[in-house]
Amino acid sequence: MPTSHLLYLHGFRSSPQSAKARKVAARVRAQHPDVTWWCPQLPASPREAMALVTQGIADWPRDTMAVIGSSLGGFYATWVAQRTDCLAVLLNPAVDPARDLAQSIGEQTGWHNPDDHFFFRPEFIEELRALDAGPLRQPGRLFAVIAKGDELLDWREMTRRYAGARIKLLEGSNHALSDFDEHIDEILGFIGLP
Predict the structure, then answer these.
(1) Angle (nearest 5°) at CA 138 between 132 and 143
(2) 97, CA 20 to 30 Å: which among 10, 72, 73, 181?
(3) Would you say residue 119 has pLDDT above 80?
(4) CA distances from 149 to 91, 92, 145, 154, 181 (A)
(5) Cα–Cα dist 164/68, whole Å
(6) Mean per-residue pLDDT of the chain
(7) pTM of the full predicted structure?
(8) Are 60 and 5 in contact (CB under 8 A)?
(9) Considering its fold, how many domains does the chain have in total?
């Protein structure tokens, strides 16, 4: 069944202005204008971010919604998929952000707008721990695109986390998936939006 509602969750310090988010948005608008598209600017607080998402998708049809998440957004997308059983595409997904972001406590700047400052608070680490989605309930409904060339996250850890899911393991590439154009057809095909 084709996706009728598509959620895109950006990564840490990222925004709806990320190259991947903009490319997916443009493709959906051009080829699937009837699909509901939502790519919110996520608050720095993981608890607030998931509260925003939960409220935003509250009336979405679970059987025809899908989520795409990149990096920290992939961790969040896994949390959403575990609760809704929707299809999910995970782009170099963070596996243990509570561990990885502990060194990022303090003032941060937005990746796409350096004038955009936010404070990553110590309590956000516990909020991330609370969002651990546990063992995958329906791994067959997940598609992970994982780059061996990711300079921030360990591809082996990502591959272990998403064992049983469909995995596209890229020999090179990088954390940002700068070769995203080569994979967008397969990604959208997985959620029924060829």
Answers:
(1) 85
(2) 181
(3) no
(4) 13, 10, 12, 9, 17
(5) 18
(6) 94
(7) 0.95
(8) yes
(9) 1
Three-state SS string over 100-144 comes to HHHHHCEEEECCCCCCCEEEECCHHHHHHHHCCCCCCCCHHHEEE
Which structural domain, as residue segments, surrounds residue 64? Answer: 5-190
Structure tokens belonging to residue 127: 């909020």
CATH number at residue 154: 3.40.50.1820
Residue with tokens 């989605």: 133
Q: What is the pLDDT of residues 8-44, one digit of tens each?
A: 999 998 999 999 999 999 999 999 999 999 999 999 9
